[in-house]
């Protein structure tokens, strides 16, 4: 009879001495070898800041033998990705995914399982019933479209505005925002051109892209062209527009906010008439400098706005866990209250809040 | 109450039906849940996935086909546009529409997810879809570029890009076809998998069902034994209890819920039995007490007897009726006491015995109804009663309730009612006042003989006749309205005076009074009307009104005549003095005579005015009316047209009256003139005389209270137009005439009326429209007596001597009278009023031979002065000089205190004759 209390004390002692497990943050952004490399970068930064409290987990490298992942992440939809990610363990929060379509698909799975999702840069609107579990760091596509339209009208005094957009959810959403704002301000859009994502080469593909842009200029005579397309075809379009309508303003969506395109644009003869929307503005504070230094050290390149947003997404997830605990519901509630008391959390991409006044996280800036 | 409910210990030990049911229900649910869970866990995800993937693949097949067809169509259309561009005609609108269509298709494909593979698609299909998407992207790039080249008119670039599109379309079609093949194979595989899964699920389900079916009989037996049978027993007990059977007891064996319910049922039934017994006992007591109170409070005597006729109950009213107390009567044989045999009251005994003996209620004469008879009281007197016998049902014995009503008071009231009715009937029938009962609808219910006489029809013919039919048409509407208001209660009664015509056409005035008679509910049962024939009263009232009018006219005329006579007295006096003036020439005397003659005509006019009143005739004489009629006849035969026939119907005996011949003559002449005027086309005038004796009844019909006695009736009849009642009632009014303006003064008949009344006579008129008129004058036929009236005679002047006291307030009259008296040789002391005259006379009472006093003087009238003078000198000769006539003054012919009357105006000769006559003592 004396053995039982002794065993009980021993069990309780072991449980009390057992090291606590870190809360898991799902990585819904990176796949493959490159993805694992990037994930390690963010995980190391979080480890420096929060110790063993959190850890980032993601899908394994497809080259490691998982035959369900053929190695081409483009086909992997968000739902499949989310289900497999959740299979890795009890995730407290997930940060992801690349692209609005995958993000909205995945959000359905996370909401059904009660796991909050922090979205760094996907902006397309999803299903309404998942919104309470979804926290976007950037405004949605429609809001970005309205921002671009307002900037063209107010800052550039444009009155003949054309839109070249890619026919996916992202392009359609931004186009819808531009159109709705122009209609509200009694300035009808002069042309809208859907353009497939194609490389800007010297062959027939590039020729076709250029002809589409030239035809648009001859047809609409725009004084401002809003580009909601990937960077590759954007080059051809910018060249054609500047050739056939030299005075026209070119306003790119955040999809063009890439270092390569920025560098290419700066070399253009009329780079002063090219503007690009960006969700990240380099800040000169210690956190931003530390991020840039670490990024350069790890990747050997300058960070892009997307990188800053992803970094802020992981940091925000870690802080929420530390503040609210490892429970997904507690983290969700903490994130929903963020900014409600007037205090906003500030990351390397700027202030973030999900309650109270929206954070102006997107801005249109000239290349030069 | 005994607590027979199961104890707590029993409830604890009892196997609970509820527990059993819960176990069974849980088992059944677990069984069903196990089946469902097994099937769901085993097959649901697989089936759902298969179905979802199959749907997605089917959609994919359709989408692939649609996309391929779309691309083919766009390429063909662009080639067509390119050829058109080659010909120089570039349809930009068509190109723009094509571009927008291509753009819309692309956006829609992205939005629907058509370009991506289903989530669970196999890798082979996913890879094929990605290849197809890449090729489609290149194809769309080429198509958009070719379209743009055509828009910018670069046909070379357009052909180059269209050729590229052609080259890309085939691999894309192959890729889509490859995807389609893969999808089809996948669908077929999933269908096989679904079929296999369904078959396995069916086998499992059948196994579970068989196992479940095997347990059903066992469960049923258990439920029947534990639940159904005990509940049926309980239900049967409740049915019997609710049907009123309280003697129910259930087994109540065991300790489960149903057994406890049965035990509770037994306890409840026992309680109900005890309560029912107590309630019955209490109700019996209450019923007995209530019966006792009802009997005590009953207005009738109530007696209860048993089948042997012995009294069982005897209420206070029975004590009051018969005099025996309850204690005395209980147990006594009822009929032998109240209805002794061998007496007249034995019939009551038979009534009761028959009612008791007859079992059927309808057979006994006094059962369930009332029979009148009489019974013996304690004091031996008889009491009239109404008796009814009612059997009282009972389980063991039959009793009878005898209800006895004392009819003494009722019979007395009925007798009084009959007597009252008889008296009323007699009064109604024998009354001299007309009486009638009229129903609320206005129909005559009953009419007494007096009313029938007034109406002029037999009473039996009037029953049922509307009263409005008996009224004059011009009054029936008004009377019907008043009757309606009376019935409605808007008028308390009707009292009215109505003229009507009897059935024989004669007129009758009816004083009608009607009042409603109401029944016990306050509704009008009938209207009681009384009617009196007041024709005579109405006529007398008319006569009285006429007399009053004539009296007023007479007074007026008399006043005028007095003043007129005073004036004439001066004129005539001076003219007469002038005529007798010795020194006057013949011419002056002739003019004086003319003045006197003219003044005399004025005096005649004054006389006519006086005749409007009851002024006594100044020239009364015994005359034969026949002579007067002859004179009138002579006049009118000369004056009237020959179309007017004049007939005489005179009494053979002389028609002697004492009257003023002139007035009688004028009256008859006026009547004859009126008769002629009533016959403008000619006709007949009849004079008729009769000696008649008028009785008091006849005389009472006329105003002025004429004296019954012998009269001479003088009738003047014509066959003219006659008069209406309205005209007839006014013909004697002064100045009333129906003649044209200027043809009549309206004084003729008024003078006739005045003359007749002045002779204390009666005038009667009978006339009807179209039937002519008859005026009848009744003049008293009395003996001629000696009168102290002076009959003027023409004679020479009689001179005298001595002092004369003359009093007259009219200066002219006083002066002319003084001159006349002096002319006759008298010494005259003339004064202006009675006081002065009395003062003069008091100073020298024996000095004056006679005194002449005016009748109407200021300060002291002639009458008072004469009375005072006669006190000083009782045999003094006093003349009254007056323009009035004695009757006009309401005085005797020669007023008291005077010796004679000198009617103004008088001539010197007349003055001398009157003075001489009284001074010499000759009448």
Protein model, in words:
- The complex is a heterodimer of chains A (368) and B (923).
- By secondary structure, chain A is of the alpha/beta class.
- Chain A contains twelve helices and 13 strands.
- In chain A, the strands form three sheets. Chain A has a six-stranded mixed β-sheet with strand order 7-6-8-9-10-13, with helices on both faces.
- Chain B contains 25 helices and 22 strands.
- Chain B is of the alpha+beta class and 923 residues long.
- Chain B is elongated.
- In chain B, strands 2-1-5-4-3 form a five-stranded antiparallel β-sheet. In chain B, strands 7-6-10-9-8 form a five-stranded antiparallel β-sheet, sandwiched between helices. In chain B, strands 12-14-15-17-16 form a five-stranded mixed β-sheet.
- The model of chain B is unreliable at 1-14, 359-363, 784-794 and 886-890 (pLDDT under 50).
- Classes of the chains: A alpha/beta (368), B alpha+beta (923).
- The A-B interface holds A 68, 70, 72, 74-75, 77, 79-80, 101, 105, 167-169, 172, 192-198, 204-205, 207-216, 218-219 and B 96, 102-103, 106-107, 109-111, 113, 116-117, 119-120, 123, 126-127, 129-130, 137-138, 140-142, 144-149, 151-152, 154, 157, 160-161, 164.
Provide key terms for this protein:
heterodimer; A: 368 residues; alpha/beta; 6-stranded mixed sheet; 5-stranded parallel sheet; 46% helix; globular; B: 923 residues; alpha+beta; 25 helices; 22 strands; disordered N terminus
């Amino acid at each position: 009879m004396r053995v039982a209390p002794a065993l009980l004390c021993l069990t309780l002692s072991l449980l009390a001495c057992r090291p606590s497990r870190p809360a898991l943050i799902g990585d819904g952004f990176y796949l493959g070898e490159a993805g694992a490399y990037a994930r390690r970068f963010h995980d190391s930064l979080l480890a420096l800041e929060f110790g063993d409290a959190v850890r980032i987990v993601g899908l394994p490298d497809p080259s490691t033998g998982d035959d369900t992942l053929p190695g081409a992440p483009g086909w992997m939809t968000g739902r499949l990705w989310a289900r497999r990610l959740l299979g890795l363990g009890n995730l407290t929060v997930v940060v992801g995914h690349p692209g609005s379509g995958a993000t909205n698909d995945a959000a359905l799975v996370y909401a059904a399982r009660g796991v909050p999702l922090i979205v760094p840069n996907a902006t397309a609107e999803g299903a309404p019933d998942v919104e309470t579990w979804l926290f976007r760091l950037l405004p949605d596509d429609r809001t970005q479209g309205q921002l671009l339209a307002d900037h063209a009208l107010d800052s550039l005094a444009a009155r003949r505005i054309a839109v070249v957009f890619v026919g996916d959810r992202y392009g359609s959403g931004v186009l819808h925002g531009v159109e709705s704002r122009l209609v509200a301000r009694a300035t009808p859009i002069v042309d809208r051109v859907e353009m497939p994502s194609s490389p800007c080469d010297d062959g027939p593909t590039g020729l076709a892209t250029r002809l589409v842009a030239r035809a648009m200029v001859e047809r609409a005579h725009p004084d401002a062209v809003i580009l909601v397309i990937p960077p590759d075809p954007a080059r051809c379009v910018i060249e054609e527009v500047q050739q056939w309508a030299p005075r026209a303003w070119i306003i790119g969506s955040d999809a063009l906010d890439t270092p390569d395109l920025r560098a290419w644009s700066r070399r253009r003869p009329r780079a002063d008439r090219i503007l690009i929307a960006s969700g990240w503005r380099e800040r000169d504070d210690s956190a931003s400098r530390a991020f840039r230094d670490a990024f350069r050290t790890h990747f050997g390149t300058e960070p892009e706005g997307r990188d800053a947003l992803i970094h802020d997404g992981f940091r925000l997830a870690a802080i929420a866990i530390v503040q609210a605990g490892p429970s997904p519901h507690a983290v969700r509630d903490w994130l929903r209250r963020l900014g409600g008391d007037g205090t906003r959390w500030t990351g390397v991409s700027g202030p973030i809040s999900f309650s109270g006044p929206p954070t102006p996280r997107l801005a249109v800036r000239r290349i030069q | 109450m005994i607590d027979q409910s199961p104890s707590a210990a029993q409830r604890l030990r009892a196997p609970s039906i509820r527990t059993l049911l819960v176990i069974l229900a849980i088992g059944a649910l677990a069984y069903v849940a196990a089946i469902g869970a097994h099937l769901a866990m085993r097959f649901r995800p697989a089936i759902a996935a298969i179905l979802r993937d199959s749907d997605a693949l089917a959609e994919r097949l359709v989408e692939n086909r649609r996309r391929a067809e779309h691309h083919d169509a766009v390429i063909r259309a662009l080639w067509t546009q390119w050829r058109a561009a080659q010909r120089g005609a570039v349809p930009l609108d068509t190109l723009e529409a094509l571009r927008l269509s291509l753009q819309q298709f692309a956006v829609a494909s992205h939005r629907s997810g058509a370009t991506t593979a289903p989530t669970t698609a196999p890798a082979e299909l996913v890879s094929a879809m990605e290849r197809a998407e890449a090729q489609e992207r290149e194809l769309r790039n080429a198509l958009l570029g070719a379209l743009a080249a055509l828009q910018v008119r670069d046909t070379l670039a357009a052909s180059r890009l269209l050729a590229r599109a052609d080259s890309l379309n085939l691999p894309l079609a192959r890729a889509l076809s490859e995807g389609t093949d893969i999808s089809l194979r996948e669908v077929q595989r999933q269908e096989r998998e679904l079929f296999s899964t369904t078959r396995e699920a069916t086998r499992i389900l059948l196994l579970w069902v068989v196992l479940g079916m095997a347990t059903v009989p066992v469960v049923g037996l258990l439920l029947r034994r534990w639940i159904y049978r005990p509940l049926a027993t309980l239900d049967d007990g409740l049915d019997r209890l609710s049907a009123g059977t309280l003697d129910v007891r259930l087994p109540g064996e065991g300790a489960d819920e149903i057994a406890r319910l049965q035990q509770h049922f037994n306890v409840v039934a026992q309680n109900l039995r005890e309560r029912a017994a107590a309630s019955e006992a209490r109700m019996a007591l209450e019923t007995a007490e209530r019966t006792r109170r009802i009997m005590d409070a009953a207005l009738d005597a109530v007696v209860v007897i048993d089948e042997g006729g012995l009294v069982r109950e005897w209420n206070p009213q029975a004590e009051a009726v018969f005099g025996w107390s309850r204690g005395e009567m209980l147990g006594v044989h009822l009929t032998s006491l109240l209805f002794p045999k061998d007496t007249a009251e034995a019939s009551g005994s038979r009534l009761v015995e028959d009612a008791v003996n007859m079992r059927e209620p309808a057979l006994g004469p006094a059962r369930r109804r009332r029979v009148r008879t009489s019974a013996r009281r304690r004091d031996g007197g008889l009491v009239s009663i109404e008796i009814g016998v009612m059997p009282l049902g009972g389980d063991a014995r039959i009793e009878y309730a005898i209800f006895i009503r004392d009819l003494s008071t009722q019979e007395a009231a009925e007798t009084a009612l009959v007597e009252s009715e008889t008296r009323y009937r007699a009064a109604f029938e024998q009354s001299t006042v007309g009486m009638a009962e009229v129903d609320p609808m206005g129909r005559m219910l009953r009419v007494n003989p007096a009313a029938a006489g007034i109406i002029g029809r037999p009473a039996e013919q009037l029953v049922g006749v509307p009263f409005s039919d008996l009224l004059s048409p011009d009054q029936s509407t008004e009377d019907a309205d008043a009757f309606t208001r009376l019935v409605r209660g808007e008028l308390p009664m009707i009292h009215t005076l109505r003229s009507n015509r009897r059935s024989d056409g004669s007129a009758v005035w009816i004083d009608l009074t009607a009042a409603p008679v109401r029944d016990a509910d306050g509704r009008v049962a009938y209207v009681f009307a009384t009617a009196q024939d007041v024709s005579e009263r109405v006529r007398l009232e008319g006569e009285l009104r006429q007399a009053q009018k004539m009296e007023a006219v007479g007074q007026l005329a008399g006043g005028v005549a007095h003043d007129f006579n005073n004036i004439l007295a001066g004129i005539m006096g001076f003219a007469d003095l002038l005529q007798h003036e010795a020194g006057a020439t013949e011419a002056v005397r002739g003019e004086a005579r003319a003045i006197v003659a003219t003044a005399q005509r004025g005096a005649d006019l004054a006389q006519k005015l006086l005749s409007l009143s009851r002024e006594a005739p100044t020239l009364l004489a015994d005359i034969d009316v026949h002579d007067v009629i002859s004179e009138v006849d002579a006049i009118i035969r000369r004056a009237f047209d020959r179309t007017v026939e004049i007939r005489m119907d005179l009494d053979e005996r002389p028609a002697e009256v004492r009257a003023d011949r002139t007035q009688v003559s004028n009256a008859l002449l006026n009547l004859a003139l009126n008769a002629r005027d009533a016959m403008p086309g000619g006709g007949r005038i009849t004079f008729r005389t009769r000696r008649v004796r008028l009785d008091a009844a006849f005389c009472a019909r006329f105003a002025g209270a004429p004296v019954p006695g012998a009269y001479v009736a003088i009738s003047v009849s014509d066959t003219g137009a006659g008069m209406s009642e309205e005209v007839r009632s006014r013909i004697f009014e002064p100045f009333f005439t129906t003649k044209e303006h200027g043809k009549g003064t309206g004084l003729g008949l008024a003078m006739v009326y005045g003359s007749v009344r002045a002779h204390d006579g009666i005038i009667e008129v009978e006339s009807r429209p179209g039937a002519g008129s008859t005026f009848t004058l009744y003049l008293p036929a009395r003996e001629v007596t000696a009168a102290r009236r002076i009959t003027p005679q023409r004679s020479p002047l009689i001179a005298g001597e001595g002092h004369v006291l003359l009093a007259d307030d009219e200066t002219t009259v006083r002066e002319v009278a003084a001159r006349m008296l002096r002319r006759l040789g008298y010494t005259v002391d003339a004064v202006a009023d009675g006081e002065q005259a009395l003062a003069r006379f008091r100073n020298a009472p024996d000095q004056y031979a006679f005194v002449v006093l005016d009748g109407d003087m200021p300060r002291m009238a002639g009458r008072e002065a004469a009375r005072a003078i006669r006190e000083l000198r009782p045999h003094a000769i006093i003349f009254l000089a007056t323009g009035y006539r004695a009757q006009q003054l309401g005085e005797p012919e020669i007023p008291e205190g005077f010796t004679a009357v000198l009617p103004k105006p008088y001539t010197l000769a007349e003055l001398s004759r009157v003075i001489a006559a009284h001074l010499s003592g000759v009448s």
